[in-house]
Amino acid sequence: MTPQELIAGFGTLDGELRVGGVPLSRLAARVGSTPFFAYDRVRLDARVDLLREMLPARVELSYAMKANPMPAVVQHLATRVDRIDVASTGEMHHALDTRIRPDRVSFAGPGKTPAEIRQAVAAGILVEVESTTELKRVIAAGDELGIAPQVAVRVNPDFAVKGSGMRMGGGPQQFGIDAEQVPAVLAEFASSVDILGFHVFAGSQNLNAEIIAEAQRKTVDLITDLAAHLPGALRYLNLGGGFGIPYSEKDRPLDLATVAAHLGELVDGPIASRFPDASPVIELGRFIVGECGVYVTRVVDRKVSRGKTYLVVDGGMHHQLAASGNFGQAIRRNYPVVVGNRAAEADGDSVTVVGCLCTPLDLLGDDIALPPADIDDLIVIFQQGAYGLTASPTAFLGHPAPAEVLV
Amino acid sequence: MTPQELIAGFGTLDGELRVGGVPLSRLAARVGSTPFFAYDRVRLDARVDLLREMLPARVELSYAMKANPMPAVVQHLATRVDRIDVASTGEMHHALDTRIRPDRVSFAGPGKTPAEIRQAVAAGILVEVESTTELKRVIAAGDELGIAPQVAVRVNPDFAVKGSGMRMGGGPQQFGIDAEQVPAVLAEFASSVDILGFHVFAGSQNLNAEIIAEAQRKTVDLITDLAAHLPGALRYLNLGGGFGIPYSEKDRPLDLATVAAHLGELVDGPIASRFPDASPVIELGRFIVGECGVYVTRVVDRKVSRGKTYLVVDGGMHHQLAASGNFGQAIRRNYPVVVGNRAAEADGDSVTVVGCLCTPLDLLGDDIALPPADIDDLIVIFQQGAYGLTASPTAFLGHPAPAEVLV
Hints:
Oligomer: homodimer
Number of strands of chain A: 22
Largest sheet of chain A: 8 strands, mixed
Shape of chain A: elongated
CATH topology of the largest domain in chain A: TIM Barrel
Strand content of chain A: 15-25%
Number of domains of chain A: 2
CATH superfamily of the largest domain in chain A: Alanine racemase
Distance between the termini of chain A: 23 Å
Largest interface: A-B, 69 and 69 residues
CATH architecture of the largest domain in chain A: Alpha-Beta Barrel
């Protein structure tokens, strides 16, 4: 998507980008300091509404809070989604603070310790086990606490998903139990604990609707095979998510209508006939929050070095690891950057936007066209609602933590 | 360096790695939780002693605390080095808490705000300006506070240093004032503020002694040219640092004797004759602390997926961004990893060590030979004294912060 398309998504007033309806310079004054992250509540609601409108009614929407664990965001989304997925007991505590019922909180991720599993079982949340070791720990915690644990098996599928930003299924993986091992695991443990169902998650940040649809079809087939080995009915059917958002200008948004159409066929067909007791779960983080957030930082210095113009801002890679190109990318590509208080002005000469860290890694926009900007202008990086602040090394070089606001 | 060489550096007792003389399992019991970072005080002292012994006596040693800002480490090193370099006012506060005099604390880094410069001038620390804008801010803060500021100019040299992990000089840069612009800047501002001298820093993490020596020679020549434009004598001569440490097995340690020999010629020759009022400063972070620290994490799960064996540990990339390959590396290479409580055992089959984060980025050791390890064994990553904890996204996925101990 282009910066202009992204600006239009938030809207402008008197030439300034608006977030949550508030012009950016006013928002900066309200926050009182730069840099900061701002999340737009109206856009957040619109995103959930869009998913509700397009996805089959029987689909349950789970928010993967690892994408953005800001408590206000989690609390707000808890009033709009059906489930929350957590990746740690730290996240679990925040999820339990919301109105979502504990049995609608799922806990996934490798390497869960006995202590963490004990906490999860005591809380009554759904533990998605990633190995036989974890399953044994769940059973032990249930026995010790006198609680029937909520448990499902995360499955490492026997197929891979192409085109994902990160592949998390197929071949050897640290995630889940290999599909072909699952029948033996169920045969051994299903008499000791009530296993509700399965979670298959094959990859994240995918922008290709057909590939997502194909993965969902294969997932339903795989779970059909595995469910035959359960002693009771399948009651948990987590199809994963992996819906991507566009970061670079070349990226096109995911065709949600196509994903929804294919999913509708699955829901009305095999899922309805085979799994009458399970609502399919779609688990999304980045797709819900990613496009609703911006990172706002102020120009502190403008300098020309050997013909190249630099805008030095008061933020940087300590809040923007992914935008700096240091979070899982093989090749750095610019994230969309604009001058938020000059959103209606024409681009001038190219500039390079760097952060305030004393390292050449701290690069936010390399040789990009922007309206002429100088000290005190507000530089905005889009698509920062997910994997922004918490996925960055905030303590690096000892700068203050940025504010986060839900507007 | 090989894992065996690294183990020998710390020493063992009854087959266990020792840190600060304490066997690892006992240290883990003392800390009370894993994962943790442990820094060895004896090795820290030995490193400073080595530098003192080999470098010319007139050289002042500055500790770049961005490498490891743990307060206990900074306090300890403050009793052993001559200067501390800070990269933010946050770091400045910690440096001022030590016995180092304020005028021996330097503050470098692009994008210093007027408020930060005002704090630094009020503290009486040495501000290394990275642009004309910053120089004007220093003068303004001095005028406002009625204080004569301590100030030096950081220079972007007209040469580049090959073989650095990160190039930070030569060509266009956000760092420093271009060498060819410095005479004009001095002509304009040297009557308004007393400029003590210059800092030239050309690159970091360099393992080639000849290249470092060549950069130091060129730096002295460059500063000689620039010093002619100062109205008074040169009193600050910061030659940078950039001494690297070995991370992968193929890396060989820096030949410090060669660096020292060349530096000795510079100190006894041009520096003594041209700059009688300045002691050359060598600024080191990683080289002082990097090899003194280890990261210790416990195996939580061992699983085999489609023929590949995984050790899942309770730490991960949220504390080990560089080891996971996501901090400035174009190609991921394994950091040195051992089983700390089985330091004397022979290697078994290859395993892959992954962290507890729910992302395939969380890879700590890819297909490495280790002694057979299982749940509760202690996995150690070496060379973790610098750019470890603070250079990692600690809040990612909401796991607890690791402990840090100086033993």
